[in-house]
Every structure is written in structure tokens, then in C-alpha cells.
Design brief:
Number of strands: 5
Largest sheet: 3 strands, parallel
CATH class: Alpha Beta
Strand content: 5-15%
Structural class: mainly alpha
CATH topology: Protein Binding, DinI Protein, Chain A
CATH superfamily: Skp domain
Radius of gyration: 31 Å
Order of helices and strands: HEHHHEEEEH
């Protein structure tokens, strides 16, 4: 009986020690987790604050206005034409319009790609400078009927670095502009 009691006691001690080791391990993990520095960024605000967003918006307006102007011309020229005449006029319109549209869309895509690249570079620069372990988008757009609502992703904690990222983008663009001026 005593042998069985000793084995049970030994197992209890081993289980107790194992539990204590796991508890200590998890405690140290929590201490490390508490030291994680998290940055929050409102990407919608960064995108709207980027200088290229104005260019993209202006190009989009130009595209719509050009299409509207051409549509009005097509309607005016198409008055009184039969279906065959309308089809020829529409084909002519599309043949003239498509290269213009593609050129504007290509320019928009270039601005969008550059803007995206600037944002990623700025997030990395601010993250490195501030020694952040993690940077996340602080809000998400959620459609709600006819409205689009901004819902927070992070409800508590973290440090808002949105303005730091916008400032980094502006600084980088100014630096690039000065370098271009020097080479010209």
C-alpha cells in the first residue's frame, strides 16, 4: 500500500511541478505581450490626406465630364438618324473615346499605385521610428443601407499614428520634389 501511496504522491508532485512550470511560462508570455506596442492608423484618413488623392479625384471628374460632353455631342449628332446611322455614329464615338478614356484611367491607376506605395512606405517608416510591433487599421467601412459607416476595429488601446503617417508621406513627397528640382 505504501508503494502505491508513494507513486501517487510522486505523481501529484510531478503534476504540481508541471502545472507551476506552465503557469510561470504563461506568466512570462503575458509580461512580454503587455510590452507590445500597437499603432492604430485610420487608412481612410491617410488616403484622403494624400496629395495624389486630389489628382485622382480631379482625373475622375475630368473623365465624367468628358464622357458627358461626348454623350451630349452624340445625342445632338444622332437626332433624326436611323438605327444604322446611330450605330455608325456610336462606333465612331467609341473609337475616338476609348483611347482618351484608357489614357485617363491609366493615369488614375499610376496615381493610385504610387499613393499605395507611399502609404506602405510611410507606415513602415513610422513603425520603425516609433518601434511599433504591430500597426493596424483603426476603422473599417461598413455599408448600412444607403450609408457607409466607419466602425472601429480597435475599441481600446493602441496609439493613433494617423497624423504621423500623413506627415511622413508629405515629407517624403517634398523630399522627392526637391531632388527632382535639383536634377532639372
Amino acid at each position: 500500500m505504501r508503494v502505491v501511496e508513494k507513486k501517487v504522491a510522486n505523481k501529484a508532485v510531478v503534476i504540481l511541478l508541471f502545472t507551476m512550470v506552465i503557469f510561470l511560462f504563461l506568466s512570462f508570455q503575458n509580461i512580454e505581450a503587455a510590452e507590445i506596442k500597437i499603432g492604430l492608423v485610420n487608412l481612410a484618413e491617410v488616403i484622403s490626406g494624400h496629395p495624389y488623392t486630389q489628382n485622382i479625384n480631379q482625373l475622375s471628374i475630368t473623365l465624367r465630364e468628358e464622357l458627358q460632353k461626348r454623350q451630349e455631342e452624340l445625342n445632338a449628332q444622332g437626332k433624326g438618324l436611323d438605327e444604322t446611322g446611330l450605330k455608325k455614329l456610336e462606333d465612331k464615338f467609341n473609337k475616338e473615346w476609348n483611347p482618351i478614356k484608357e489614357e485617363i484611367l491609366a493615369e488614375i491607376k499610376l496615381y493610385q499605385a504610387a499613393r499605395y506605395s507611399h502609404i506602405i512606405e510611410a507606415v513602415k517608416a513610422v513603425g520603425d521610428k516609433g518601434k511599433y510591433d504591430l500597426i493596424i487599421n483603426s476603422e473599417i467601412k461598413v455599408p448600412a443601407g444607403t450609408d457607409i459607416l466607419n466602425y472601429p476595429i480597435a475599441l481600446y488601446g493602441g496609439e493613433d499614428i494617423t497624423q504621423d503617417i500623413i506627415a511622413e508621406i508629405v515629407r517624403k513627397l517634398e523630399e522627392e520634389s526637391k531632388e527632382k528640382d535639383k536634377t532639372q
